[in-house]
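Hi U.,

Before I forget, here's the chain from the pilot set. I'm dumping it here mostly so it's searchable later in email.
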Amino acid sequence: MKNLMVMAASVFAVACAEAQTLVQRDPVIAGMVAQVSGDSMKAYIEKMISFGTRHTMSTVTDPARGIGAARNWVADKFNEWARQSNGRMTAYVDTTTLQPDGRRISEPTSLGNAMAILKGTDPNDKRVFIISGHLDSRVSDVMNKTADAPGANDDASGVAAVMECARIMSRQSFPATIIFVALSGEEQGLLGAQFMAKKAKQEGWQIEAVLNNDIMGSNNSHDTKIIDNTRVRVFSEGLPAFETEKAAAQIRNLGLENDGRARQLARYVKEVGERYVDQLEVKLIYRNDRFLRGGDHTAFIQQGFAAVRITEMNENFLHQHQDLRTEKGVEYGDKIEFMDFEYLRKNTALNLACLANLAKAPAMPQDVKVETRGLTNMTQLQWKAPATGKVKGYFVLMRETSSAMWEKKFFVEGTQANLPYSKDNYFFAVQAVSAEGNESLAVVPVPGR
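Structure:
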């Protein structure tokens, strides 16, 4: 009996060892992640603070103060880094004029988004991936355009992440296009993001993912007293904000309330981010944003693009949307001394790893279908190769219907899979995989022959 127990234990150990999959990091991406510098981002934020206020309606003619000087400086930095891109990256300030709206714009206002476009190397690959933060800042009165508003964490932290990714990634080449953008007008109603998202929709940009970074560089809350720089939140919508009525019947029929494009992107950020960034746990928050708050990703979601918001785990509301002051020994205001640059480094590395993995991966598989005609306890999937990209194979993903994350991966080289798991009991999806192991976003199958 003792020998039988030992034999059984040995077989179990071997089976477990064979079932283990070692996490493999693409050495090119790992090398870029290692270059992310908290010191560099601190310098960017110090410069942004030096403009006094970055309120959307502040001056655009003063060379040293206001939103105009700030956005020009960001574009200048983008252009500086573009010189190391062998002509692949270009930068500019994309402007429009806002008219008074009776809400948060009280006068004609020049709105400008500082953008850098790192063009993909494959002329047939039309995919676009975006990383964003918002450049504008505010104090307690959202209409106060003259008071000093450092906006160190909200949201110079997000812009610093965008800039650091641009600095590092401009030296590399990717098949797909990456856009780095410092948006304006967020505090006045997501105005810069709406301007960009509507233009993208009208011009037919093939945006596959938007990583919006807003308030991501501090690690403590003022009321719960939690201090933690090892977790970051990713917010994602459930039911799509875009054309929900058209999609509702299929969503309900297939039980895909938790499998929209933004939700798939959030899962991707967690898996890839935790693969490359040590001592960082990505917490998926299953709502589009926090209560009573909003972010620039929403403007893209409303145009039908997949977008998520990346935000620190424990916000300190004494240091957001506050006049600079001290009351009863409590200091208010969004100042740089309240930030944690090691935490910002990790959160920026998370963005970079996800952007690079997406842009290096093949496009998503096409026409992913699950066979539903027969009564069977098997699952038969089939799909077509991606429109662009060199494919080593595909991952078929599987999870329990009650599970938040994909639980199993099956690698196949062809464009079909027949699995001994019931389609009625699990959710499935398919990813295209490059030779270096870079995965596309996951595509959930629809019924088909």
